[in-house]
Write a structure and sequence with these properties.
By secondary structure, this protein is an all-alpha fold. The longest helix has 30 residues. The chain starts with a helix and ends with a helix.
């Protein structure tokens, strides 16, 4: 209980700080909580997005994102909190993909494809059995960060240091496992531990990303800032920092612009569009620099 009180105090202080920003839409509590949620989530999606790009795991994150559909359907059918079942089911799917890869002779892409097909079909099957459920799925398909509350913010405050601690102490191990698991095992790295840990963290972050931008755009939230950072950075370290900065800037601009009366757009879609604009600008600037050097 003491830890929750500390988190509640931190949330109140951070929301109050956001309220000091001289923008009208940020004077509302639900907007302050939404921006805080995005600013906590953005660094995690940025860091893991860089690894998803380097480790070629975009299809993996996409499969976990689509598992949210089945998780929500289960929650609605079983009269449980959909956000809890979505998170639990997403983590189970991520661990299941790793288990299938490790215990079978099929390729990683094939394992992901099988699980991806299974979870999507299962979600559609559950929804089709209960017609009234489909009306409640729109929020999770398109995302609604404006509904985030203190419970989700507390979890993000717990998850953020976990993600960065894993990066601090395990990045080299994760990179070795991604490049060559056999060689990593020969160097004394516990391959299974790092694979399961990374998949669980990625699954948790992906599920929270679904709450922010929806199932359809979750992979873009991970990949686009990382791809943009790759265009303008000259080292892996620089790629991490550029990705974090661009992800947080896209989140801030997306939330604020979507709340303007002249736009009134979906927050998640606006965030991704701004990220894509940054990607186009970074690509054009990179080509201009290459042209001058030539």
């Amino acid at each position: 209980m003491g830890l929750w009180r500390l988190y509640d105090t931190m949330i109140d202080v951070l929301c109050s700080a956001i309220g000091l920003i001289p923008i009208d839409c940020l004077q509302h509590q639900f907007m302050q909580q939404a921006l805080l949620g995005l600013l906590l989530l953005a660094p995690m999606t940025a860091v893991l997005g860089v690894e998803v790009v380097h480790f070629r795991m975009a299809f993996f994150s996409d499969a976990i994102g689509h598992s949210a559909f089945a998780g929500v359907a289960l929650g609605l059918i079983l009269s449980l909190e959909p956000k809890f079942t979505m998170l639990a089911f997403g983590i189970l799917v991520g661990l299941g993909i790793i288990a299938l890869q490790r215990r079978s002779n099929i390729s990683s892409d094939l394992a992901i494809g099988v699980v991806f097909s299974a979870v999507v079909a299962f979600g559609l099957l559950v929804v089709s059995r209960t017609p009234g459920t489909a009306r409640n799925m729109q929020q999770f398909l398109f995302g609604d960060i404006l509904t985030i509350g203190p419970d989700e913010l507390r979890f993000l405050l717990c998850l953020l240091p976990m993600v960065f601690l894993v990066q601090l102490f395990g990045f080299n191990a994760l990179l070795s496992v991604a490049l060559n698991p056999v060689m990593a095992r020969a160097h004394g790295i516990h391959v299974a531990f790092w694979q399961y840990l990374f998949s669980a963290l990625l699954a948790a972050v992906v599920i929270f990303s679904v709450w922010a931008v929806g199932v359809l755009l979750v992979t873009a939230l991970l990949i686009v800032p990382a791809a943009c950072a790759r265009n303008i950075s000259h080292s892996l370290c620089g790629m991490f920092w550029w990705s974090i900065a661009l992800s947080m800037l896209s989140a801030f601009l997306g939330l604020v612009l979507s709340a303007q009366p002249w736009l009134s757009s979906a927050t998640g879609a606006t965030i991704i569009v701004i990220s894509c604009i940054f990607f186009v600008l970074s690509t054009l600037s990179g080509r201009c620099l290459q042209g001058r050097r030539a």
